[in-house]
């Protein structure tokens, strides 16, 4: 009922998990991580204790495969479990129980493992790993790109409900306290992955303050659809009319802004969005009316 990705960045030594599911508050169950130790995703008929128990064993220097073997050996219901593990050396291990619901499986990359069950197909994991490995930036950028790619590929075949990301870094917490560099959840939303990405963009521009973060657009999925529709009517956008903020949208915004003698940076405020939509003759819906659709 879930797809997730667990990874380690050897350059920053970040560890993390990103997850999405047709399950309420998957972020409260699936992701576990500790800086300098490892990261674990526990899902399917999840045994939550795999997280804290597994991290304790990793902290003692036990390798991920041995940790996994130990967790499974003690669990009589292991065939309904799915788990992925990476440690602070980038070693990975994963297990998909035979009684997990199809499509089910896991795939490895370098210092990363993608896993899922009740998926539309194997292509979800393939898309996740391809996006992860081709995305530049920090681990959080790679994990979110992978989650979005899995969502685009169809994700959980039952639908969408929740998403979460947890990335840990030594002294990376708020004001340097703790290790929770990024810890964000969307517990119940019609487009949880896109909403998670929107929230992260706000978090990045106000809390992480990474270079360039203030030039990133942060919009709700339905607003992105309307903006794409407007730019398409004006002749600047030719891609899919969906809620994803992608390079085609950025290119369309750049072209529109340049044509109007405005900034060429694909960052726009709310007033500019309204201007584009009005210029295209599209009704601007209120938040209340959007929520009912």
Summarize the structure.
The chain has helices at residues 50-59, 64-73, 123-134, 139-152, 192-208, 221-233, 247-259, 270-279, 287-291; strands at 2-8, 15-21, 31-34, 38-44, 81-87, 92-96, 105-109, 112-117, 162-168, 180-186.
Structure report:
This protein is α+β, with helices and mostly antiparallel strands. The protein is 35% helix and 21% strand. The protein has nine helices and ten strands. The strands form two sheets. It has a six-stranded antiparallel sheet with strand order 7-8-1-2-9-10, with helices on one face. A hairpin with a 4-residue loop joins strand 5 and strand 6 (92-96). It starts with a strand and ends with a helix. Residues 286-293 have low confidence and may be disordered.
Keywords summarizing the entry:
293 residues, alpha+beta, Glutamine Phosphoribosylpyrophosphate, subunit 1, domain 1, 2 domains, six-stranded antiparallel β-sheet, 35% helix
Shape: globular
Question: Strand pairing plus helix content: what structural class?
Answer: alpha+beta
Low-confidence stretches: 286-293
* CATH arch. level architecture of the largest domain: 4-Layer Sandwich
The H/E string reads: EEEEHHEEEEHHEEHHHHH
Strand content: 15-25%
By CATH reckoning, the class of the largest domain would read Alpha Beta
Biggest sheet character: 6 strands, antiparallel
| Helix segment tally | 9
CATH topology of the largest domain: Glutamine Phosphoribosylpyrophosphate, subunit 1, domain 1
Strand order of the largest sheet: 7-8-1-2-9-10
Overall radius of gyration: 20 Å
> Which superfamily, in CATH terms, is the homologous superfamily of the largest domain?
Aminohydrolase, N-terminal nucleophile (Ntn) domain
Distance linking N and C termini: 25 Å
Number of strands: 10
> Quick check: average pLDDT?
91
* Count of discrete domains: 2
